[in-house]
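Hi all, a correction to my earlier message: I attached the wrong file for Transposase. Here's the right sequence:
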Amino acid sequence: MIDPKRARLPIIRQCTLLQLNRSGVYYRPVPQNEANLALMRLIDAQFLETPYYGSRQMTWHLRRLGHEVGRKRVRRLMAIMGLRAIYQKPRTSVPHPEHRKYPYLLRDLIIDRPNQVWCSDITYIPMKRGFLYLVAIMDWFTRKVLSWRLSNTMDAEFCIEALQDAFTRYGTPEIFNTDQGSQFTTPRFTGILEERQIRISMDGRGRWLDNVFIERLWRSLKYECVYLHAFETGSELRVGLTKWITHYNGQRPHAALAGRTPDEAYHDAPTPSGPGLTPDQRANSSAVRMAA
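and the right structure:
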C-alpha cells in the first residue's frame, strides 16, 4: 500500500494515514549466511529421518558431524524452517481466540473415492543460496497433488492461493485436513472452506500419522528432486518442482493404487482391490513401509 514514488504524499504521511510504523516500511530482511544455510540443509535432511528430534537432539547430531553449534542457534534455525519435534507435549500456550482448532474427522472413516478428503501441509525447501516454503494440496485417496505454491514467508497468502487454485481446477472436497499451523487455523483460510460447506479436520498435536501421505510426499520430493539439484533461484526451483510433480502425478505408479498413477486413479476413480482402509490402517501400513 506504500508508494515511495508518490511525490505529493511523502512516506511519513502515508504511514500516518495507514497507521504503520516507518521502520517496517524501510526494513529489508537480512538473508541467512552460508554457514546457517548449510546447517539448515543438514537439519532438514535429518528431520526427514527423525521427525521426533527437537533442538537438543538436533544440536547433538550436528556436533557429531563436526559442527560446533549451540542449542539456541539450532532452535532459531528450526523455527525459521517451521520444524517442530513430533511428540506429545503438554498444553503450554493458549490458542489465539480467533483461531479455532477443529477436531480430527478421519479416524475410522473409510476413504474410498477422489474429492472425499483433501489434505495440505507446508515444508521448507533449501536452495543453493537461500530457501523458500512450499505448500501443497493433495487428494487423500489418490495421492494426487492438486495444487502447490512457493513463498519466501510462512504467511497464509500462498496457502490461500493454492486452495483457490485447487477449487478452480478440481471443485471442492467433502473434508479438508491440515495440521494446526497458524496458516491453516486463521479465519481467512477456514472461512473459505466454511463458505463452501467443506468440513474442516485438523491433526492432533504431535500426530504426524494423521497426515502421513503428504509427509511421505515431502520425503520423496526432497530426496528425488530438491537434494539432487542445487537450485540457485526461485525460478529454477519452480521449474524443477513443476517437472517432478508432473512426473509424480502422471507417471509414477503407486502400490496402494494397484500400480496406477495418481492421475489415473483420480480421473478414473477405480476401486482398489480388497475392502477400503481406514486412515489409521493406511497410516500404520505406511509407517511400516517408511521404517523398512
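Sorry for the mix-up. Confidence is low (pLDDT under 50) at residues 88-96, 270-277, 283-292.
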